[in-house]
Specification:
This protein has 222 residues and is mainly alpha-helical. The protein has one domain (16-218). The chain has helices at 2-44, 52-68, 75-100, 104-129, 136-157, 160-186, 193-218. Helix 2 runs antiparallel to helix 7 and helix 6 (160-186) packs antiparallel against helix 7 (193-218). The longest helix has 43 residues, at 2-44.
């Protein structure tokens, strides 16, 4: 009976894992579409950049609010509202590169393409390799706290080299977060696809923003 129960439980667990991944990727696609649409409208209307404090409150506080309703019918509109708002915030940043930075269009395209490649490659590796990346949890949590402190400090210090270092660290941390969260779903350690979506979205968003900064430096924008 024990072997029979185990043989039944394994396929059931695999189906549940596949369902979480499928739902997370569907919602992630909708979230990216909402963000892209909002960013496009913001660019077309030449929207003004939001204050950094407003951005921080929404970008960091949003996931905490979504977590409170993540298992209720409010979860879908909450996620789309959050991703739409952060997409709007991204619009003026992209517009700045497109209109004021030499080679800005190339920088945006390269950052976007690299972001897509990194996400797909890391997600595929986590699913195919079947490795557990739980050891990254502490690293990501601590790293994000240090990174946040460094970002706030550099808002006032405005040191280009520190900005470059922050972006390099952010790319590594967001890559680690993508590996960790995908691995958690693959191994059945996460059943809330809404929060998986939010974590993956914020990783992709931060990855893109910091790759913009890195490509900007590489292109001579200091």
């Amino acid at each position: 009976m024990t072997e029979y129960a185990r043989s039944v439980a394994l396929p059931t667990r695999a189906l549940e894992t596949n369902k979480v991944l499928r739902n997370a990727y569907i919602l992630l696609a909708l979230s990216l579409f909402a963000a892209a649409a909002a960013a496009t409208v913001a660019i077309a209307s030449n929207a003004a950049p939001v204050h950094w404090l407003v951005f921080m409150v929404v970008f960091i506080g949003g996931p905490f609010l979504i977590a409170r309703v993540s298992r209720s019918p409010l979860s879908l509109p909450a996620v789309l509202l959050y991703t739409g708002a952060t997409g709007w915030f991204l619009g003026p940043i992209i517009n700045l590169y497109l209109t004021r930075v030499p080679g800005g269009e190339s920088i945006v395209v390269n950052a976007l393409g690299t972001t897509a490649f990194v996400f797909v490659a890391l997600s595929a590796y986590a699913m195919v390799s079947k490795q557990r990346f739980t050891f990254l949890r502490g690293f990501v949590f601590t790293g994000c706290l240090v990174l946040l402190a460094a970002i706030v400090a550099n808002i006032f210090l405005q040191i280009p080299v520190l900005s470059l270092a922050i972006s390099g660290a952010a790319v590594l941390l967001m890559s680690a977060l993508i590996l960790y969260r995908t691995s958690e779903v693959v191994h059945g350690g996460e059943d809330n696809y809404v929060m998986v979506t939010v974590d993956l979205f914020t990783s992709i968003y931060a990855l893109f923003v910091h790759l913009l900064n890195l490509f900007g430096f590489a292109g001579g924008d200091d």
